[in-house]
Automatic annotation (TrEMBL):
Chain's role: Accessory subunit of the mitochondrial membrane respiratory chain NADH dehydrogenase (Complex I), that is believed not to be involved in catalysis. Complex I functions in the transfer of electrons from NADH to the respiratory chain. The immediate electron acceptor for the enzyme is believed to be ubiquinone.
Keyword Transmembrane part of the UniProt annotation: yes
Pfam families named among the record's database cross-references: NDUF_B12
Keywords recorded for this protein, A-Z: Electron transport, Membrane, Mitochondrion, Mitochondrion inner membrane, Respiratory chain, Transmembrane, Transmembrane helix, Transport
Coarse class of the protein's main subcellular location: mitochondrion
Annotated family: Belongs to the complex I NDUFB3 subunit family.
Cellular localization per UniProt: Mitochondrion inner membrane
One cellular component term from this protein's GO annotations in UniProt: mitochondrial inner membrane
Highest taxon of source: Eukaryota
Signal sequence region: none
Coiled-coil segments on the chain, per record: none
Protein name: NADH-ubiquinone oxidoreductase B12 subunit
Record membrane topology: Single-pass membrane protein
């Protein structure tokens, strides 16, 4: 195999880019970055907190629509002739 004149080794690059590489295990900043992806900052918790009042608002709106449909009278009588 002919060595690359630039000194770039594709195999070494792929090995370093792998999350299971020896370099990733020696990363001095890795422990400082882990807080971004754990606990309240996990992907699920970040997604869950995008719209904080959406669940309560949806239930309240559905309840109002149900109340309006069954208990409120429609006084407009659309389609009937006015006398």
């Amino acid at each position: 195999m002919v060595p690359n004149p630039t000194g770039f080794d594709l195999r070494e690059f792929k090995a370093a880019a792998s999350p299971r590489s020896a370099y990733a295990k020696r990363d001095p900043w890795a422990r400082y970055e882990t807080w971004r992806y754990t606990g309240p900052f996990s992907r699920f918790n970040r997604f869950k907190r995008i719209f904080p009042g959406l669940g309560i608002a949806t239930v309240a709106f559905a309840g109002y629509c149900t109340y309006e449909h069954f208990f409120l009278q429609d006084d407009h009588h659309h389609g009937e002739a006015h006398h």
